[in-house]
Amino acid sequence: MEAKIQELIDTIDEAIAKWDKAIPDIEKDFYANVLRLVKQLELKGDDIKKTVANLRLMNRIKSDLDSALYTKRYLREVDAFMKYFEKVEKIQSEYFAESFKDFDKPAIWNEIKKQTIEDVVESLTASDISTLVVQPVADLIRDDVMNGSSWSNMVKSLEKLIESKSGLDSPLKRYSSQIVTDAINQYAAQYNNTITDDLGLQWYQYVGSLVKHSRPFCRSLVAKRWVNVAEFPTIVQGKIDGKQVPKNARTGLPDGMIPGTNAQTLKTYRGGYRCNHLFIAVDDAIVPEAVKRKFAESFGK
């Protein structure tokens, strides 16, 4: 069972790492395509002419920016990433089949799966990325054309906006990495939740890789490891084994946690945006007796 959990963690980490590795080449393609589009603008010396022709061209460029990003290379990477969803589901199914004799995949999962995958593809190829990545490029071009700005300065600004440089992530790197990290971890969490709700399981392990920027909430829960569902109401408030982790003053939740997270959604949203950890259901027979005694003493169960 532990081997399956580690395989799941490794598979999720691999999916995210492969996406991040592909980003530099995608950024270069995007920048080169945008440069080809703006090279059509009429110039006077180094300045962009404020002409009707340039204003009309600006609108055509804006409509072509999605295609400038969503190249064959980009769409191949989206397809490659989405294949990991099947791998994650397969590993989890094997884990549950080995761990629980009553395991049977609920029929509702197929519809949850279909809608989740459609939402992820939409986020990566239209709604979220278009708003967060493509629109700022369109805004920059529009402002420079409307103001008759310097061509060379516009090109430098576009490169700075589109490509990650000197340790500064581009909007594409920043937002797409968040989307893929959240998507595959929440997919695994949703599958886990669907099965555990069906089986009525009570005990979980909190698992996943710790990195330099892991939040105190996740570090504390990984160290705790064994969690009973009855602890969720206090854990979601940041109290872990009687110790309080840092909270966000605005949301009242542990730092980094998605606003609105509660005891019911904790298994899905976990530590928040870009959280790479999971609550994995376990048979209470493998939970150490000392852990169960401590839980019983604290919760009177």
Low-confidence stretches: none
User: How many extended strands?
Assistant: 7
- Mean pLDDT score: 94
Helical residue percent band = 55-70%
Rg, rounded, reads: 24 Å
Strand share of the residues? 5-15%
Query: H/E element string?
Result: HEEHHHHHHEHEHEEHEH
Spatial strand sequence of the major β-sheet: 4-3-7
Largest sheet: 3 strands, antiparallel
Terminal Cα separation, in Å?
Answer: 27 Å
- Secondary structure tally, helices: 11
If you had to describe this structure to a student in words, what would you say it looks like?
The protein is mostly helical. Helices cover 63% and strands 8% of the residues. It has helices at residues 2-38, 52-69, 72-99, 108-125, 127-147, 151-162, 171-199, 216-224, 232-235, 266-269, 289-299; strands at 43-44, 47-48, 203-208, 226-228, 239-240, 243-244, 277-282. The protein has a 3-stranded antiparallel β-sheet with strand order 4-3-7. A hairpin with a 2-residue loop joins strand 5 and strand 6 (243-244). Helix 4 (108-125) runs parallel beside helix 5 (127-147). The chain is elongated. It starts with a helix and ends with a helix. The mean pLDDT is 94.
Which tags fit this structure?
63% helix; 3-stranded antiparallel sheet; mainly alpha; 301 residues; two-stranded antiparallel sheet
